[in-house]
Design brief:
The complex is a heterodimer of chains A (541) and B (396).
Chain A (H helix, E strand, L loop, with lengths): L2 E2 L23 E10 L2 E11 L4 E6 L5 H8 L7 E6 L2 E4 L3 H6 L2 E4 L11 H6 L5 E2 L4 E2 L1 H14 L15 H14 L4 E5 L7 H16 L3 E6 L2 H7 L2 E6 L2 E7 L5 H9 L17 E11 L5 E11 L3 E5 L6 H9 L6 E6 L2 E2 L5 H7 L1 E4 L3 H5 L6 H4 L11 E2 L2 E2 L1 H14 L16 H13 L5 E5 L7 H16 L3 E6 L2 H7 L2 E6 L2 E6 L6 H8 L19
Parallel strand pairs in A: 4-11, 4-12, 7-10, 10-11, 16-23, 16-24, 19-22, 22-23
Antiparallel strand pairs in A: 1-6, 2-3, 2-5, 5-6, 8-9, 12-13, 14-15, 14-17, 17-18, 20-21, 24-25
Helix pairs in contact in A: 14-15
Chain B lengths: L1 H16 L2 H29 L7 E3 L3 E3 L3 H13 L2 H26 L7 H22 L4 H33 L3 H24 L29 H20 L1 H11 L1 H6 L4 H28 L9 H11 L7 H22 L3 H27 L16
Antiparallel strand pairs in B: 1-2
The chains are: A alpha/beta (541), B mainly alpha (396).
Chain lengths: 541, 396
Amino acid sequence: MGRITDSGGSTDARIADGGGRSRRSPAVELEGVTKRFPGVIANDDVDFVVEHGSIHALIGENGAGKTTLMNVLYGLYEPTEGTIRINGEPVSFDDPGDAMDVGIGMIHQHFMLVDTMTVAENVVLGDEPTRFGGLLTDERKAIEETRRLAEQYGFDIDPTERIEEISVGEQQRVEILKTLYRGAEILILDEPTAVLTPQEVDALYEILNELIDQGKTIIFITHKLGEALHAADAISVLRNGELIGTVPAAEATREELARMMVGKDVLLEVEKPAANRGSAVLRIDELAVDDDRGIPAVEEVSFDVHAGEIFGIAGVDGNGQSELVEAITGLRRPESGTVTFEDTDMTAFPRRKRIAAGMAYIAEDRQKRSLVMEYDLRRNGVLGCQRLPTFGDRWWIDWDRIDGYVDTIIDEYDVRPPDPTAAAHSLSGGNQQKFIVGREFERDPSLVIAAQPTRGVDIGSIEFIHERLLELRAEGKATLLVSSKLDEVTQLSDRLGVMHDGQLVAVVRPESVTDEQLGLLMAGERPTGLDVDAARTRSEP
Amino acid sequence: MSGVRARIEASLDRLVDATVIERLQISLAALGFAVVVGAVLVFVSGLIADCPDPFLSLPGLGGACYNPVEVYWTMATGSFGSLAALGRTLQETTLLLFTGLSVAVAFRAGLFNIGTQGQMILGALGAALTALWLGEVVPGSLIGALIVIPAGVVVGAVIGGLWGMLPGLMKAYADAHEVITTIMLNFIAMGIAFWLVQNRVGNLESDSVLTHTIPEVARLTPTIGGTRFSLWALLAALIAALGIYVLYDRTILGYELRTSGVQEAAAEYGGVNAKRNIVTSMTLSGALGGIAGSVYVMMVQYRWQDGIPPLGFDGIAVSILAGNNPIGVIPAAVLFGAMKSGSVALNLSLGVPPELVEVLRGLIILFIAMPEFFRMIGKRYGYGSDPLATDGGENV
């Protein structure tokens, strides 16, 4: 139960019914909030104020404490110190149910919807309108209620459709409807744009504006500067658990925000010398791959990656990139087509042989694939190389040689803490990734496959990883870069393929397309006046 | 509500982060607590029980029958106080080493083998039948023993290994959780062995369910008079412990086995056939369980008899107590062995009811194993110093 600890004030004084508020106290006030975990201070004396009816962006690097702070506000964590005031009233929450009771709703990054149920059923789930004294769910009323809410806020959504049949953008709208149905006045969105196409992002902004117009308050967590600047009224920056500052979005600049986030100037443009291309290292020929359920995920994809070039693949997550990469690296068996690596047909080769042949791989899910989370760095340093003659003979592992290798990685790739006995799970995302990059690059591979190499990684590490990728390119290595970050693939790639619905819908030169055109391609449309096959067959620039 | 939860989570973090020294200190403190709690229980039980000659008379409460100090003293001398006591302790230790290692091998590879008991029962039957059959053929000399005893061990290992391979296959290729399947396979193993011995391969004249007694040549020679403990079996168990330590710590195969069990997807990323390795780990674990059965038949029981003691289940506690470290299994098995023989002595010489003795033993195991157990659970669910855990999102 939500305990209003000071029950002196009248609780109905500021109930927002469509915008008619009686007074303008801040919707959310966090004062001196500190959240300690054993050995870690996740939030340090944070004062955070969100005005009524505004969109407030909370930005910061990975591990800066954004999500922890919001979990405190949402009642998932109890703050170690500090007070929370909602609409001026001090509150304390035992669980998210309490936060919901005072009108705080959270939309998580990973949706919590039942795929097989309809939109309306999901919206009312847990709080269903009933008939016959609670015996049956009143489905008609659920649909009506959902439709009424959707219309009120201008959502384009059919309450009778099933979740599995609607797009990710629509699913997000269902999540928002869920919190509105429960009477949320303050909505927290955790990385809401991470899974959306550029077009869907625009639609989300419209929805947020509509919500604001109707008197709601919105906090969204992001680490994309552009988004915060574009959508928010005010921006708060967290760094190392401390609130560095809050600035009005209208007065802020990218550079200023970036500086606040990392505490130093960040190179936002990548400097890329001209490519010096060689022969084809990887050749993919009409590759078709099924996903885990046996449904075709990649259809007849062909391309090649040459020495000294970075071939980028852009696309919204879940359009076959993961399956394609797994088929190339030997983690998934393709249905048809061939993978040729340095003139050897490797389609049927097990992963071990591909590693031995010089294929390095930065997997998109580092916590699942590229690292054994409970192993220390030393044991992780040999993952994938354990059978290479460099690190042992036939039966035995040579830990001394591995120690030397791991020290080199830690040193050269600036892994912190520089402790080979630290468990992988104790490192931040950026340091985990730098370690993986080091392990894969230091083996002197001839092909690097980098899948989402900077996902969930702080700006400093992103810059570092980008530099290393360009270094490899300068050394004449072939790189396949798969990323859903548009600026990353467009800035780093020499040629850029776009995947949509399992197909490589275009191969272009990144400098010849606009972000809007790429967005359309990623959404499966054909922008007019663009040669989508301009760079499909490789020719000199 | 969330306050309690936070405290529990903080404790788990603390446990997972504990150093080896701290863990030893925790274990010793737990032992102390178990003895204190046990002493209180013994004393109170003594007040309730009737006896002709109480060691202490309390006005209003009556006589206290059992002296806690004497009880624990008897337990200590009963396990190490004489050669015979030492023999009993080491005999138990040897068996627990094998079953403990069986469980530890699986645990080390991230797998829960609860099926050591079943693997041991079938391994024991295989060894008994091998000994009965080969014992007839080979000469009754040392040469004969050198043939029949290793043969018994190998047969036990193979049968136990196959029985362990089964849940491994089910885990790797059908996603059936090994905890469930190994528990169920225990019952099946027991049923198969019982039926075979009762109806086919056993001593059909006997009213009990047992096989014929194995010949002298197939028995491990007792080392200490008055007990059946054989130093050779203990040495073999110690070598096995060392071998498993080396396997997991120094060999490529061990690294791959462990990685496959701990994080299958990462093993595949590392070019390892994780599914095959899960089967291998379970087979190895089962083989050790089978060897425990062989040694039980050839060193202790000299036949297969219904009602084999739950050494396989004790092995789980031994392994947890040892933090699943094959070298740590050695002291853990000694402690368990000592308590087993100590409680036998207690029952015989002081007349403390066997149920109470079991309670004392259980208390010690419970107190010592629980911190390790929770540490394991905490580790599995990602507790411990982990800045990422404080940051719910973004770690895609």
